[in-house]
Amino acid sequence: MTNISITAKDRVFVLTGAGISAESGLPTFRASDGLWAGHRVEEVCTPEAWKRNPALVWEFYSKRRADGAKAEPNPAHLALAELEARLGERFFLCTQNVDDLHERAGSVRLVHMHGELARARCERECGRPPVEDYAIYRRLDEVGRCVCGGRMRPHIVFFGEIPLEMDRIQQEIASATLMVVVGTSGSVYPAANFVHWARQHGARTVYVGPEPPLNASAFTYVVEGKAGEALPGLFQVE
Ligand SMILES: NC(=O)c1ccc[n+]([C@@H]2O[C@H](COP(=O)([O-])OP(=O)(O)OC[C@H]3O[C@@H](n4cnc5c(N)ncnc54)[C@H](O)[C@@H]3O)[C@@H](O)[C@H]2O)c1
Ligand SMILES: [Zn+2]
User: Distance from the CA of 233 to the CA of which of 27, 178, 209, 210 falls in 20 to 30 A?
Assistant: First the structure.
């Protein structure tokens, strides 16, 4: 079995994708012919979709909220939270996932670059921050409005929008000596470029997942396996 050693000098940057939540029962996105839970992303996950049919967008994300609430963190989420407990501020987690399984496993130093299911924000980008929102909406007229009058939308980065927290992510990558990427197909940018940025700074790079990602050749090691089986015990902290 592969072992990745982590010394006192290492700083670890972890990027996760939908694959890490697959063993918790949440469907990945490319696994099913480019459909996410039965939908084409253009129908539910773009600014145009929101303009055309906000009811369908909220129906989709309401369903994702309901599924997310039923799911539990799996051994892969737990292994990353344990690694953070040992490394403290030398650990940083960036997830592309919008579920909250990492925080429920105990991760703290994390950002959701593609947003969070459990929040909503004003569609007008009026400057008011996102608010907590776990509601399951059945009809559009149940969805609240911002004080500015704009309709509340999911706090999700739609395809074509700019990911969140990019400054912090770039800083953390620049100081990392080890990058670990888990369960992401390497097809969504800019996340698919993180491995290249890490290498430019001289970091070791490791991919964990059942099949090589599109950007596999950029990794120092590819550990083939399911995240929940491969991650626990993968790291040897010295
Ligand atoms: N749970 C979620 O929050 C969720 C779910 C689906 C899609 N999305 C969104 O859709 C986009 C899809 O991009 P993506 O690259 O994250 O996912 P993706 O669906 O494109 O790719 C999933 C990857 O996970 C791998 N995988 C499947 N089972 C695995 C397992 N048990 N362990 C490890 N890896 C496994 C697959 O080989 C594949 O490479 C993301 O930006 C994300 O925001 C989020
Ligand atoms: Zn507003």
Answer: 27
pTM of the model: 0.95
Q: What is the pLDDT of residue 185?
A: 94
Amino acid in the structure at residue 180: V
Query: How far is the centre of ligand 1, averaged over its atoms, from the C-alpha of 7 (Å)?
Result: 29
In this structure, the residue with its CA closest to atom 27 of ligand 1 is 19
Q: Is the dihedral of CA 41, 43, 49, 50 positive or negative?
A: negative
Question: Which are the catalytic amino acids?
Answer: 114
pLDDT at 1 over 70: no
Please provide residue 148's backbone torsions phi and psi, each rounded to the nearest 5 degrees.
-80, -10
Looking at residue 130, the DSSP 8-state letter turns out to be: P
Q: What is the pLDDT of residues 37-89, one digit of tens each?
A: 788 888 899 999 999 999 999 999 999 999 999 999 999 999 999 999 999 99
Phi, psi at residue 172, to the nearest 5°? -65, -35
- Report pLDDT for 118: 97
Mutate to test the pocket of ligand 1, among 26, 28, 94, 222 (most ligand atoms within 8 A of CB): 28
Nearest atom in ligand 1 to 21's CA: 1
Strands (E), the chain: 4-6, 12-16, 35-36, 39-40, 91-95, 110-112, 115-122, 131-132, 152-156, 178-182, 204-209, 221-224, 235-237
Q: Which ligand does the CA of 22 lie closest to? A: 1
Query: For residues 227, 232, 233 and 238, what is the CA-based torsion angle, rounded to 10 degrees?
Result: 110
